[in-house]
Amino acid sequence: MWTPEGFSHAKNIAGLQGSRTLGKENPSTAPMRLVLDLKAETMTVEVKVEETKVAEGVVVPQEEPEKDVVVEESKNDVKGAAEVKEVDAAGDVGPKTVQKSSSYKEESNFLSDLKEFERKALSELKLKLEEAILGNSLFKKEGAKKKEVEKPLEEEKEKEKETKEGKESGEQEGEKKEDVKPEGVSEKEKTVQEREEEEKTEVVIEGEKSEEIDRDVSIWGVPLLPSKGSEGTDVVLLKFLRARDFKVNDALEMLKKTLQWRKESNIDSLLDEEIGVDLSSAFYMNGVDRKGHPVCYNIYGVFENEELYAKAFGDEEKRKQFLRWRFQLMEKGIQKLDLRPDGISSLLQISDLKNSPSPSKKELRTAMSKAVTLLQDNYPEFVAKNIFINVPFWYYAFNALLSPFLAQRTKSKFVFVRPAKTTETLLKYVPAEEVPVHYGGFKRESDFEFSSKDGEVSELVIKAGSTETIEIPAAEVGATLLWDLTVVGWEVHYKEEFVPSDEASYTIIIQKGKKMSSNEEPTRNTFRNNEPGKVVLTIQNSSSKKKRALYRYKTKKNASY
């Protein structure tokens, strides 16, 4: 049964960035449409489980249930749309070979690359921001305090007036005014007047302080006063403009609210803050993608551990610590960015939904809902792409419900990946040497064997029904050869041998023939040769579809031991 709590959970996991818009649907017809969508989605997922969902999320039909629907990756990468292809039940649509993403390009922050209306909006926002800073209207005024002070003061004066009138009416008519000594009243009046003057003085003083202009106001280390000419100012302002579809007033209001939130929450001091909770197993930065974007991983499955769950969400105080920890991680990620027109100014986010807690976890749902709201409202356009891996079936159904409430710009950044396609898709965006080994890449914790100096990873295509070999030369006797290898595209047959240069010598079997699939961790092996020769890695593809092998190797000489 689909519940509002489940819908909220789906929105939380999405980790949205950017603006939110409501879907334009007829409320009277929406419920029936959603039911039809869910039924169609169930049929689709059962028939085609290996397809990668991209961009808008799930596209589901409302008619012709006798045909299967496959969501394919759109050729129009700029819009991030999805195409629907109908095939007969008996037909076969094979998975595409994942190439390096050619369309994965961050929007330009150079003025010359902006459209005319974008340049105009940026100029207008800079003008309004300059006026707001110099006019000291960027932050909330102390006027609210003044009104709060004046209101009780007026009430007290009114009460004093009523008391005085009541006493005066009880006096005898013939009594002279100067003979009357309403000492208590005079003292009270004097007290009220003194308090009034004191409060007025305080308000004036506060007003004088508020008139001090802060020309050095900044965000993420970037000065915001346009007349200072910082090259990072345009980059930051464009983020707010893009998050609000280049509506200048909306962007300025969003920026003001962000600055106010950072001030009230002491975000600028968050980097140096010691936070009691440690959630580094759930959220962490690790490596960069092919374009240099720092990669942020969100591992939701770890919250199945009851101890960690209680540590993060056990009570209100712990949930507050969780939020500050998450914002601290975001600030650390931004520290890795280069907020200049020619710099990398956004992150790649990878969310692993394997063993993700169910929507019934109220504490997690509440905390994540607040985190998502604050992140999208105060860190606009800091996520270039949001890849969801190991996506379970139920999430596609929730996404069908969530999609109408998301802006097209937000949806265009989403990539949904089934477990069987995890490695293949990650390698499209992240180089193999930066993909963690448990996701099919070559990156291992505390790995001292390979480094960036050892060169890039090589790729070998194994055509359908063919066999390919990789040769690692071992000309120097006593050297140690080390290699990594992984296969993309399901199973192949694999073996390792050392073949001596001397034909009279025997071939040495290093690894007997075995099956290897992309679901396994990459193979790492070593061999020390006692005579010149070569290590031969043999990959046999018996299937009807081509495969890809990624590998790297190095030779360590005797001197290193």
From TrEMBL:
<dbReference type="InterPro" id="IPR044834">
    <property type="entry name" value="PATL"/>
</dbReference>
<feature type="domain" description="GOLD">
    <location>
        <begin position="444"/>
        <end position="557"/>
    </location>
</feature>
<feature type="region of interest" description="Disordered">
    <location>
        <begin position="87"/>
        <end position="110"/>
    </location>
</feature>
<dbReference type="InterPro" id="IPR036273">
    <property type="entry name" value="CRAL/TRIO_N_dom_sf"/>
</dbReference>
<dbReference type="GO" id="GO:0005737">
    <property type="term" value="C:cytoplasm"/>
</dbReference>
<comment type="similarity">
    <text>Belongs to the patellin family.</text>
</comment>
<dbReference type="GO" id="GO:0016020">
    <property type="term" value="C:membrane"/>
</dbReference>
<keyword id="KW-0131">Cell cycle</keyword>
<keyword id="KW-0472">Membrane</keyword>
<dbReference type="InterPro" id="IPR009038">
    <property type="entry name" value="GOLD_dom"/>
</dbReference>
<feature type="region of interest" description="Disordered">
    <location>
        <begin position="1"/>
        <end position="29"/>
    </location>
</feature>
<dbReference type="InterPro" id="IPR001251">
    <property type="entry name" value="CRAL-TRIO_dom"/>
</dbReference>
<dbReference type="Pfam" id="PF03765">
    <property type="entry name" value="CRAL_TRIO_N"/>
</dbReference>
<feature type="compositionally biased region" description="Basic and acidic residues">
    <location>
        <begin position="144"/>
        <end position="194"/>
    </location>
</feature>
<protein>
    <recommendedName>
        <fullName>CRAL-TRIO domain-containing protein</fullName>
    </recommendedName>
</protein>
<feature type="region of interest" description="Disordered">
    <location>
        <begin position="144"/>
        <end position="207"/>
    </location>
</feature>
<keyword id="KW-0813">Transport</keyword>
<dbReference type="Pfam" id="PF25099">
    <property type="entry name" value="GOLD_PATL1_C"/>
</dbReference>
<dbReference type="InterPro" id="IPR036865">
    <property type="entry name" value="CRAL-TRIO_dom_sf"/>
</dbReference>
<keyword id="KW-0963">Cytoplasm</keyword>
<dbReference type="GO" id="GO:0008289">
    <property type="term" value="F:lipid binding"/>
</dbReference>
<dbReference type="Pfam" id="PF00650">
    <property type="entry name" value="CRAL_TRIO"/>
</dbReference>
<dbReference type="InterPro" id="IPR011074">
    <property type="entry name" value="CRAL/TRIO_N_dom"/>
</dbReference>
<dbReference type="InterPro" id="IPR056794">
    <property type="entry name" value="PATL1-6_C_GOLD"/>
</dbReference>
<dbReference type="GO" id="GO:0051301">
    <property type="term" value="P:cell division"/>
</dbReference>
<feature type="domain" description="CRAL-TRIO">
    <location>
        <begin position="272"/>
        <end position="447"/>
    </location>
</feature>
<keyword id="KW-0132">Cell division</keyword>
<keyword id="KW-0446">Lipid-binding</keyword>
